[in-house]
Amino acid sequence: MKLNIALLAGDGIGPEVIDQAVKVSNAVAKKFNHEIIWTSGITGAAAIDEVGEPYPDATHEICMAADAVLFGAIGHPRYDNDPKATVRPEQGLLKMRQKLGLFANVRPTFTFPSLIDNSPLKRERIEGTDLIILRELTGGIYFGERGRKDDGNTAFDTCTYTRAEVQRLAKLGFEMAMTRSKRLCCVDKANVLETSRLWRETVQDMEKDFPEVTVSYEFVDAVAMRLVQWPNSYDVLITENLFGDILTDEASVISGSMGLMPSASIGIHTSLFEPIHGSYPQAAGKDIANPLATVLSAAMMFEDAFGLKEEAELIRSVVNKSLAEGIVTEDLSGKNKAYKTSEVGDWLANNI
Amino acid sequence: MKLNIALLAGDGIGPEVIDQAVKVSNAVAKKFNHEIIWTSGITGAAAIDEVGEPYPDATHEICMAADAVLFGAIGHPRYDNDPKATVRPEQGLLKMRQKLGLFANVRPTFTFPSLIDNSPLKRERIEGTDLIILRELTGGIYFGERGRKDDGNTAFDTCTYTRAEVQRLAKLGFEMAMTRSKRLCCVDKANVLETSRLWRETVQDMEKDFPEVTVSYEFVDAVAMRLVQWPNSYDVLITENLFGDILTDEASVISGSMGLMPSASIGIHTSLFEPIHGSYPQAAGKDIANPLATVLSAAMMFEDAFGLKEEAELIRSVVNKSLAEGIVTEDLSGKNKAYKTSEVGDWLANNI
Ligand SMILES: CC(C)[C@H](C(=O)O)[C@@H](O)C(=O)O
Ligand SMILES: CC(C)[C@H](C(=O)O)[C@@H](O)C(=O)O
C-alpha cells in the first residue's frame, strides 16, 4: 500500500519526537511492504521565523494532498507572555484545524500497568481507567467573533454552535460508545449557557437512534471533579471545544502516562495524529524528550487513517516491550539508565 | 455588637446544614455578648415552588438590609435534564450574584491533617496545599448576551469583560497575595481569547503597584493539570467566571475535605458566605449531610464581614476538636460511629 503522509514537526521537541515516529513507521512499512511518501511542511514558530506565518499555504497544500498528517507540536514561550503579539504560533494550529476541517479531537486516557505509580492519584482511583474524550475542535468560542470596544477597555469573545456541528460530533461519540461499553457522557454547562442547552437538546434527540447507548448529562464543573475522583467510571465523553481543552488536559495527567498519550483529529479533508504533550520548549534540542506518544500516534494513524490494524498493533507491542525492558527516556527511567530520545527510536525501529 | 444576617437556606441539604451553622453562631454570639438578628429568605427551587421565582424581590430586600448573608445551597435535579425549562433554580443564584454585586468568589482549598488520606491524590502530592482561587463572579459568559438564531438551530453566548472588572478582581488578588506568600497566578486562555488578553494585559499593568508580588501567567488548561499534579505549588490564583467555576470545583476535590470547604463572595452591597458542596439532593432530609463547611463559612463571616477574628478562631478550633474526637457525619466517620447532621451541630454549639 502507498501511504501519503504529511509530516509537520513544528516547534520545541516536535522535530525530535517526530524523527522517532518516522523511523518506526518506516520500519513497519518495510516489514509489511508498504511505501510511505513523507512530505514535510513547516508550522508554528518555526514557520513564523521562516515565512512570517504559522500555517503557510504551502503547508496547507501538503496536508490537503496527503492521506494523513503526522504532527509534532506547536508553541514557543517567546509568544506566551506578550498579549500584544499579532502573529502567534497557536494561530497556526487553529487555522490548520479550521482549514482541514478537523472537527473531532479524539483523546484517549488509559493506563500502563508498569507506569501506574507515576500517577498523582492513588492506585485504587486510577486503576482500570480507559476513557476517551471527544472534543469538538472547529467551533465554539475558539472561532467566534471577538474583539475590543470602548477604546480597548472592553473585550468580547463569542461562542457559537449549530445543531449540525453538535450532531456531527455526537454521532462519532455514539458510534465510539457502541464499540466500547456503550456509555456516553455529554459534558456541558446547560444550567447557564445557551450553546450548552443546544448541545444537550441535540444529544437528547439523537438518543433514539442509538437505543443501546446509555447517555448521561453532566456539568463541566462536576466532570472536572469526577475525573480526579473516579476517572475509571467514565467511558466516552463528548464536549465542546473549550471544555474539551480543559478536560482533556486534566485527564492527561491523571494516568501518570502523559508522555505516552496519542491523539487523533478527525477531519473532513484528512485526519491528523499527534502526541498530546505539546512543544515542551525546556527540553527542546536536548534529545531527552519521550517519543512514545508520537510513536503511538503513528500507530493510531496506521489503524484509523489506513485501516492497517496489524501494523498498529505491532507498534504498540514494541512500545510495551520497550517499557517492560526499561528502554525509556529520563521521565520514565527512575533510578535506572535513561536513554536518549533517538536511542529509544532506534531501539523501537530495530525491534519492529 | 449587633449582627444583621440574612439567612438563605435554599434547596436540598441547605436547610439542614444551615441549621447547624445557626446553632453554632448563636452559641458564639451568646459567649461574646453579640446580638444576632437572623432574617430568613427563600431562594432556589424552594422559592420557585412558593412564588414562581428563584430569587424573589422580598429575598433581595432582606439581603440588602443585612450586613452579611449566610447561604446554604441551590439546585434541584428536577431541572437539570430539562433544557427547555424556563425558570431554573440556578437563575436565582446568578440573579442574586448580580443584584448584590458579588463580584469576587473566594475559594480556599486547604487540607486537614486528619483527613489527608481521603484525598484521591497521593499524600506527597497534596500535603501542604493551601491555595485560594479568586473567581470573578458577575461577569464573563455568565452574564453576556445569549440566544438562538436560525429557527433555534444556532445558539450563541457572549463573554465580555471590561478593564475595570478585571482590575477590581485582580486588586483583591494582589492584596490577598500580600498577606500570604506573595505569589499570584493569573489564569487565562490568552493564546485564544480576546477577553483573556485583556485580563493578562490589565494584570501586567498592575504589577508595578504591587512590586513585592511575583505574578505568573498560566493557561487554564495547564492549571487544570498542575492542580492535580502539584497543588501545593500554588498560592493565590485569579481567574474569570467560567474558568473559575471549573477550577474551583476541581480544586475542591483534591484536598479530600470537600465537605469542609467554606467560601465567601465579596460584594458591593454585602458579602455572602456559603459551603461549596452544593445542594446534594440525594442526601436531603436524611440528617446525614456534613455541616462543617457551612459552620466554617459562618466562621469566615464572623471574621471577614464583622472583623470578629476571635469568634472565628473559636469556631475553627471547635471544628478541629470535633474532627479529632470523631464527632463527624458518615462521609468522614469511616469504620467508626457516624453522627447525624444535627448531632454534630449540637456538639459544636455545646463546645463553644
Ligand atoms: C495552543 C492552544 C491554542 C490549543 C488549544 O487550546 O486548543 C492547545 O491547548 C490544545 O489543546 O491543542
Ligand atoms: C449552579 C451554577 C450556575 C453555579 C455556577 O456555575 O456558577 C455553580 O456551579 C457554582 O459554581 O456556584
Automatic annotation (TrEMBL), chains A, B:
Reactions listed under catalytic activity: (2R,3S)-3-isopropylmalate + NAD(+) = 4-methyl-2-oxopentanoate + CO2 + NADH
What cellular component GO annotations does this protein have?
A: cytosol
Q: What class of enzyme is it?
A: oxidoreductase
Q: What is the annotated localization of this protein?
A: Cytoplasm
Which pathway, metabolic or otherwise, does it act in?
Answer: Amino-acid biosynthesis; L-leucine biosynthesis; L-leucine from 3-methyl-2-oxobutanoate: step 3/4
Q: Where is this site: Important for catalysis?
A: Y142, K189
The residues that the entry says bind Mg(2+) are D221, D245, D249
Q: Start and end of every Isopropylmalate dehydrogenase-like domain?
A: 4-348
| GO MF, one annotated term | NAD binding
The residues listed in the UniProt record as binding substrate, with positions renumbered to this chain, are R97, R107, R135, D221
| This enzyme's EC code(s) | 1.1.1.85
Family matches, as InterPro entries: IsoCit/isopropylmalate_DH_CS, IsoPropMal-DH-like_dom, Isopropylmalate_DH
Q: Does the keyword NAD apply?
A: yes
Cofactor or coenzyme needed: Mg(2+); Mn(2+)
One biological process term in Gene Ontology: L-leucine biosynthetic process
Swiss-Prot/TrEMBL keywords: Amino-acid biosynthesis, Branched-chain amino acid biosynthesis, Cytoplasm, Leucine biosynthesis, Magnesium, Manganese, Metal-binding, NAD, Oxidoreductase
User: How, per the record, is the cofactor bound?
Assistant: Binds 1 Mg(2+) or Mn(2+) ion per subunit.
On assembly, the entry states:
Homodimer.
Q: Which family does it belong to?
A: Belongs to the isocitrate and isopropylmalate dehydrogenases family. LeuB type 1 subfamily.
Main function? Catalyzes the oxidation of 3-carboxy-2-hydroxy-4-methylpentanoate (3-isopropylmalate) to 3-carboxy-4-methyl-2-oxopentanoate. The product decarboxylates to 4-methyl-2 oxopentanoate.
Q: What is this protein called?
A: 3-isopropylmalate dehydrogenase
Species the sequence originates in: Pedobacter psychroterrae
- Output the lineage of the source organism: Bacteria, Pseudomonadati, Bacteroidota, Sphingobacteriia, Sphingobacteriales
Name of the gene this protein is made from: leuB
